Amino acid sequence: MTSWKLLLVCLIALSANIVTAQDKFVRVGILGFDNYQGLAFAQLFNNPKAEGDLTGVKVTTVFPVECPDYPESAALTKRWIDSCARWGTGDNKVLKEYHPVKMVTSIDELLANVDAVMICSLDGRLHVKQAETVLKAGKRLFLTRPLAASLADAQAIFKLAEQSGTPMFSCSQHRYSPGFSGMRNHPEVGKVLGCDVYGGFEIKGPAADEFIRPLHSLETIYAIMGPGVERVTCTSTDTAESITLVWNDGRVGTYRGIKSGAVKYSATVFGDKGVSTAGIYGHGVPVQGVVPTKDKYMGYEGVAIEIAKFFKGGPTPVAPAETLEIFGVLAAAEKSRAQSGTTIRVADMLK
Description:
6-stranded parallel β-sheet, 34% helix, 7-stranded mixed β-sheet
């Protein structure tokens, strides 16, 4: 038995009676635990000092399924299990106050102990099958990045949600980074007419990630400009991946995927009142052109707030049609790249 699996058995024995029917909060389960996002959300929800919308939601149960085909899946799973193993127990005063997490060995046991689910497995190729079980059980669902590893899988997941009548959504944490979302109605920019977004483009990443490499930055574009992309072109070189998006009202946005050189996640936003650099990931919007870096770092907190409100019965934060449009843009960019920069209509990809 591997060391992490032995630890899992011990945790199950120690935490068998953690979750009770009398818990007065939304009990959240995590399916797949090799994605750091799972641990990040659990830390935010289970923190005894959680405030505002982050209260009333606790990660209570984890089924740490891994993917043998995904690099580092087993190692990362062990790492995140180790990180929360002492929550609610031991002599560490800080960790003892965190709500503990129960580890289980099957999806059925996970679903029996929770009210809502986050799928946090890194390999998007697993998500259709995982989501199907959750959605058919009627548990509200949030899928961390990536929703899926292909447009067809993304469409299949939303079809399952529609058929089961179970609310779900998926998005990147970049969508709710205040330095990005706050640019849509920024007083120094006004009505957004376009933006140039840039971020990392990992050319040596796992095969499962190839399709969704621009996803964080595309979510940034949509946070700033909203949906309505009509056509896409893509130019690919050894130094950059350049995607141009044209909206149905004539607005233009671009994505520069940085393959070499310094990497930073931000944007330049063009409006009817002015042009401004956006904030950088995790921080707020610029004021008089100055980008803040010493304000509160939000990280995953912005999207965690939206997840918490959703799990407590709130509306779906991101419409399925918008998420599917983003995957249509990804598919259009992939096809354009293969055809040496041909313009591809998003609607043709979504058919």
